[in-house]
Amino acid sequence: MASRLRLPFLFAAALLTALPGRAAKPATVGVAILQAAPWSPLDSARDGAGEFEVFLRIAQLRRTCAAAALVSIGDRNGVRRSGGEKALAHAALSGLPVARLAPGGAVAAMPLGIFLDGGSLSAEHTQRVLEQCLARHGAPPSAGDPERPTARELAAIRAHLQPFQAALNLAAAAVVAQR
Known about the structure:
4 strands; disordered N terminus; single chain; four-stranded parallel beta sheet
């Protein structure tokens, strides 16, 4: 069972590393919105599906965009099941900002501090803010080995994401003020 769960992750990681380098990409910014699929405990048919979905979307973005980001709409705590969280962490540690949204709830805090919190913003509004941030600040640095980031790499990623989070907070405050 463990090898079956690891297969989509290994395939998707290999797919991401096989993509052409940044020099061949057009100078565009792309932000994908990922909607979590319904999940239920003991649903073994979906094992690895969340992980695979994230990696395929990242591969599509990296093929067409110079800088990319993800908006992940998870469950009521913003969490993606079936391996999705692991894939999102890998993406965030590979230089893609990842904003998490929790419809009808609050985004759960994550230990590495590498995800952005979209707060009460809609997916489309979060997407626009991330596009502006990528255009202004560029993509964050990536860890040499996303499976084992160093403390220095984590600090650099967090520092680069601070203006992204500030922009998301400012946009959320403006939305609340307009209500």
